[in-house]
Amino acid sequence: MGRLLRQNRQRGGCFTGWCLLFAKPSGSGKKSESKKQIAQRSRFSVTQSFLQTCTPFLRIGFQSDARAMRSAFNAAMSYNIRQAIKGEASDFEIDYPNVLVSKGPLPTSAILQTSISEGSLHVQWDATCEGKATLHDQVMILACNLEKKSVVYDLYTGKRGSLASQLQLPSQWQGDTVEVYIAFMSANDFNLVSYSQYAGRHRVGV
Question: Of 3, 42, 119, 206, which has the most beta carbons under 10 Å away?
Fold first, then answer.
């Protein structure tokens, strides 16, 4: 490590060939930067708290966005912290319709109807198949419970060609509100997934 230099209340150093210089910010600049840092930490905390409940699903849904130095979870964080947070710095919250729990190039099929009855979530979609999509693609469904801050999901609820599928919800979720997402995974390449689609907010019947 290079020699640490000190001059005029500034700090600098050379690390593996890179020379860095850190100037002490002015008073007004420091306050402005602190507000930005606080806001960013708040956005990060809200996003992470939500996505951590979906981690196993995200490992599949964001695998195509993962890099050598970035996990699928970090890829999901990067997208959703920018696109799925709303509110002011002191009151950030998840913007559920804009959340993605899967992101990939496989074509989707439009959702036609979503409902909950007898403790099960029911989803229907159309038969459209474009590009690399096939009727044998797997259907992935995720339901997020807002009150209990928990999720249930199934990565293999059926095939695209069935045009409908269902997900059993926990009995203790009765009366709670859930946010629902659906995505598709290729039958020929499990690394190939679609963008997730928001299937609405629904109340679990009592």
Answer: 42
Structure tokens at 62: 């964001």
User: How far is it, in rounded angstroms, from Cα 63 to Cα 75?
Assistant: 8
- Measured in whole angstroms, the distance separating CA 79 from the mean position of its chain's CA atoms is 7
Tokens in use for 165? 């599928």
CB 184 within 8 A of CB 141: no
b/e sequence 78-95, b meaning 16+ C-beta within 10 Å: ebbbeebbeeeeeebebe
pLDDT-based confidence at 122, cuts 50/70/90? very high
**What is the reported pTM?**
0.81
Reported confidence tier of residue 62, pLDDT bands at 50, 70, 90: very high
Query: Of 171, 169, 170, 137, whose CA–CA distance to 156 is shortest?
Result: 137
Q: Express each pLDDT in 2-54 by its tens digit.
A: 433 333 333 333 333 444 444 455 555 445 567 778 788 888 899 999 999 99
Q: Where are the beta strands (DSSP E) in the chain?
A: 5-7, 10-15, 18-22, 85-86, 93-94, 111-117, 120-125, 138-145, 150-154, 164-168, 177-185, 197-203
- Cα–Cα nearest to 50, from 197, 150, 184: 150
Helix 72-83 × helix 27-51 angle, to 10°: 120
Q: 9 — phi, psi (to 5°)? A: 60, 30
